[in-house]
Backbone:
């Protein structure tokens, strides 16, 4: 399986930056890597998140970008996909999304498939994001942070994924402004404890403060490069 599903525990948790940094890490090591947006809302035309990924990787747009395969579903209204689609009198074409991801994955060593928001975000009236990812048996990379309330969301996300048979490739722990160092340290400890409890790899990669320059980070443990 060369497609990793990347989800955050919530919106604005730093998922897009984490995906871009992972793509840059793999690209610099000679891996053929591409990022794909499962569904993009709040955009018109092309995905601004994908443009950010490409800039972080130091590359231009891929042919798959121009063909619309890396952002197969774009809606202009910034909301949950099921609502953004309904507001435009459209539907979320899950078959088209599956086909696009399969086509892209045939040409790359690694595909980082970025979800919209968290695992419980509805893609349609009847299907949650986690259900789609679990159906495809994608390994999960979960992005969290040390901000207040994150531990609750992280443990719930781990449990939600595991109960559907998903395997976690690892957790990315984002730096959070104003986070208490002692609370952050305990949160990291508890996340590892619950990964162990649910018989998942105890892999947690911590990101430093992201400013204009993105810090080099070793994502090797997530991708089996120990």
Residues:
């Amino acid at each position: 399986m060369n497609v990793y599903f990347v989800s955050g525990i919530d919106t604005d948790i730093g998922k897009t930056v984490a995906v871009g940094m992972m793509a840059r890490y793999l690209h610099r090591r000679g891996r053929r890597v591409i990022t794909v947006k499962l569904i993009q809302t709040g955009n018109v035309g092309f995905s601004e998140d994908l443009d950010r990924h490409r800039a972080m990787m130091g590359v231009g747009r891929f042919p798959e970008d121009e063909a619309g395969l890396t952002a197969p579903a774009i809606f202009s209204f910034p909301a949950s996909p099921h609502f953004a689609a309904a507001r435009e009198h459209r539907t979320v074409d899950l078959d088209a999304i599956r086909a696009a991801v399969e086509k892209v994955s045939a040409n790359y060593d690694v595909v980082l498939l970025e979800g919209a928001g968290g695992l419980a975000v509805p893609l349609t009236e009847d299907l949650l994001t986690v259900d789609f990812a679990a159906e495809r048996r994608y390994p999960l990379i979960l992005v969290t942070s040390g901000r207040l309330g994150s531990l609750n969301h992280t443990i719930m996300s781990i449990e939600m994924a595991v109960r559907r048979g998903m395997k976690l490739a690892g957790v990315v722990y984002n730096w959070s402004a104003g986070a208490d160092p002692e609370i952050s340290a305990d949160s990291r400890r508890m996340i590892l404890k619950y990964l162990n409890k649910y018989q998942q790899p105890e892999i947690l990669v911590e990101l430093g403060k992201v400013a204009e320059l993105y810090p080099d980070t070793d994502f090797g443990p997530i991708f089996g490069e120990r």
